[in-house]
Amino acid sequence: MPYEVRGVIARGEGREVSVENVVVPDPGPGEAVVAVQACGVCHTDLHYREGGISDDFPFLLGHEAAGVVEAVGEGVTGIEPGDFVILNWRAVCGQCRACLRGRPWYCFATHNAGQKMTLEDGTELSPALGIGAFLGKTLVAAGQCTKVSPEAPATVAGLLGCGVMAGLGAALNTGGVTRGDSVAVIGCGGVGDAAVLGAQLAGASTIIAIDVDDRKLAWARDFGATHTVNSRENDPVDAVRDLTGGFGADVVIDAVGRPETYRQAFYARDLAGTVVLVGVPTPEMTLELPLLDVFGRGGSLKSSWYGDCLPSRDFPMLIDLYLQGRLPLDKFVTETIGLDDVEESFAKMGRGEVLRSVVVL
């Protein structure tokens, strides 16, 4: 029979969120119900509340989550009730041209649960990134569940479901950072600091963190930045060149996603270097660059979707590194909160006071 749980709802653009009763149906074919144990508050959730992603209100917020499988529908293999899983928002299809070419992280037909969760009056909810996890139980496609070791606490495991994976993957997967590389990261919130950590994990020799907030730069040093640059006080392009022998960095990661930061990334890289855009622009943003510079500087200009991760490959590996003490995911958790505290966590996020608030259920 359907489950009734409490969840965080965004009813309209710019309106404060509310905690309301949500009806979660039994899982159908290819679906699973997961008892959510913890869910990080990601900036994407705020984008949903502000109408920055779509106007398909009301939204059921939350997507950076981990928990235990409660029930599975017909035909589900690979997971079963009792499994500890991280939820991911790109369940690959295995059949599209990207999957068939061995590049499933680019899957063009990712999927979500077919059924809808609803309010008590039957109003259908739009789950954030196809998940909706600020609630006690959520309905997802079974492919959105990645089984990992239950020894990892849900408060840190869930962070791989979005922001931390995006940053780690931007460095490790998209940027291909390797031993001895020089790396610059523009924007040192959760995603940017995860990129710093990824560069450190890969063995980069020089890791330059760039932000306008000294508090965030201090966080970046804690994750492995060898140098920091406050771009309110110093030109970041000049600073990166000064710190790399006048050449520029091998890999520059833009974790902000604005035209001005992208231009900084473009000119702060070495000839034939790589620019990785992982910060998400808004629809109205445009970029203008001299085409001759694009040609003459060579190298690669890449976008990173979810850190170009393959959850079934990357999540268990990263959790193993965490359990070995080699991946300090705990450092991302600034505070743990309840469902009723999500609105205030958005305000803290806006003031730059937290890396991650994590809802514990």
Could you describe the 3D structure shown?
By secondary structure, this protein is an alpha/beta fold. The protein has two domains: 3-161 and 328-360, Medium-chain alcohol dehydrogenases, catalytic domain (Quinone Oxidoreductase, Chain A, domain 1); 167-304, NAD(P)-binding Rossmann-like Domain (Rossmann fold, 3-Layer(aba) Sandwich), CATH 3.40.50. 27% of the residues lie in helices and 26% in strands. The protein has eleven helices and 18 strands. It has helices at residues 43-49, 97-100, 154-157, 163-174, 190-202, 214-222, 236-243, 259-268, 291-297, 311-323, 342-350; strands at 3-10, 18-24, 31-40, 59-60, 64-72, 84-87, 118-119, 126-127, 137-141, 145-147, 182-186, 206-211, 227-230, 249-254, 269-277, 300-303, 335-337, 357-360. Strands 3, 5, 6, 9, 10, 17 and 18 form a seven-stranded mixed sheet that branches. A six-stranded parallel sheet has the order 13-12-11-14-15-16, with helices on both faces. Strands 7-2-1-4-8 form a five-stranded mixed sheet, with no helix packed on it. A hairpin with a 7-residue loop joins β1 and β2. The chain is globular. The chain starts with a strand and ends with a strand. This is S-(Hydroxymethyl)mycothiol dehydrogenase. Its EC number is 1.1.1.306. InterPro entries: ADH-like_C, ADH-like_N, ADH_Zn_CS, Cyt_c-like_dom, ER, GroES-like_sf, MycoS_dep_FDH, NAD(P)-bd_dom_sf.
